[in-house]
Write a structure and sequence with these properties.
The chain is of the alpha/beta class and 293 residues long. Helices cover 39% and strands 16% of the residues. Helix 6 packs across helix 7 and helix 6 crosses helix 10 (271-287).
Length: 293
């Protein structure tokens, strides 16, 4: 069994990005600039945003963090989005989800200029991705594709079972893996909360992608011997042996599933770090105007 090391891969990607930014800077070009908007005090969101900002700094990107209290109104947030859309120095930006309940996430996503939508959530990017046109790919699915690519995992003709159909993970990864090319050319089954006999579906998979949000949901005897397992879940569970009283686990019961799989991503240290790296790749593409003029 091979651990798919998201930490190592994301460090490699960050070094590649840093080298490119050095060249850009030495030629007097524009350094990529990512802005992040964080509304409220959700502890997980604070950790994610800090990690995005820190990673940008490590690679020599410019970064801006806009932090506002949980009582920020939708109109105020729309104004921030408008200013970022219009700021020529900002190449790309993200509004960290989830937002407080009184703000409509869909309205905010739609207000972001798709040319700066480095999270890849805007319907224009989603639609272009689905048609195989150049687009900002959603960061987590993009990170998963990079894991498969960089570990040379065979995908053509493989049966991939995706568990979870969210707009940011399950649905887009099922589209990307079914598309022509590498990684891709999979036969994909997209499963969800209404699927009959989920264990039976997962047992048919050569590649399992778990994006459900339930700790250790996928059990050992659901997984075929030799399957590749990508665990997207990030769940905090109580653990009295830890100083913090909690630990992170994925959507896959790692101890049961790992011995049966050929390759598996750990949590933490797997998909999460690759999501940050993918966001940075998108920001550099935005800066270089690789996708949109
Ligand atoms: P979501 O809540 O939007 O979607 C969950 C999906 O799981 C839904 O489509 C639902 O149909 C399905 N589901 C729920 N219960 C089910 C059941 N009993 N059986 C089968 N399917 C079921 O979640 P999301 O935003 O896609 O996130 C999923 C997980 O991935 C969460 O743990 C989240 O924290 C994590 N996540 C990680 C990253 C990362 O960077 N690693 C990024 C995004 C999300």
């Amino acid at each position: 069994m091979i651990i798919l090391d998201g930490k190592l891969l994301s460090e490699n990607i960050k070094s590649e990005l840093a080298a490119e930014v050095d060249i850009i800077r030495s030629r007097g070009g524009k350094v990529p600039h990512l802005a992040a908007v964080l509304i409220g005090e959700n502890p997980a969101s604070q950790v994610y945003v800090q990690s995005k900002i820190r990673s940008c700094e490590q690679a020599g990107f410019k970064s801006t963090l806009i932090q506002k209290s949980a009582d920020t109104t939708e109109a105020e947030l729309l104004e921030i989005v408008k200013q970022l859309n219009e700021d020529p120095d900002v190449d790309g930006f993200i509004v960290q989800l989830p937002l407080p309940k009184h703000i409509n996430e869909e309205r905010i996503t739609l207000a972001i200029d798709h040319r700066k939508d480095v999270d890849g959530f805007h319907p224009i990017n989603f639609g272009r991705m689905a048609q195989g046109l150049p687009a900002f790919l959603p960061a987590t699915p993009f990170g998963i594709m990079e894991i498969l690519r960089r570990y040379n995992i065979e995908t053509a003709g493989k049966h991939c079972v995706v568990v979870g159909r969210s707009n940011i993970v399950g649905t887009p990864i099922s589209i990307l893996l079914s598309r022509k090319g590498y990684p891709g050319d999979c036969t994909v089954t997209l499963t969800h909360s209404r699927t009959h006999d989920l264990p039976g579906e997962v047992r048919r998979a050569d590649i399992v992608v778990a994006a459900i949000g339930i700790p250790e949901f996928i059990k050992g005897n659901w997984v075929k011997e030799g399957a590749v397992v990508i665990d997207v879940g990030i769940n905090r569970v109580p653990d009295a042996t830890k100083k913090s009283g909690t630990r992170l686990v994925g959507d896959v019961a790692f101890d049961e599933v790992a011995p049966r799989s050929s390759h598996i991503t750990p949590v933490p240290g797997g998909v999460g770090l690759m999501t940050v790296a993918a966001l940075m790749v998108n920001t550099l593409k935005a800066c270089k105007k690789e996708i949109y003029q």
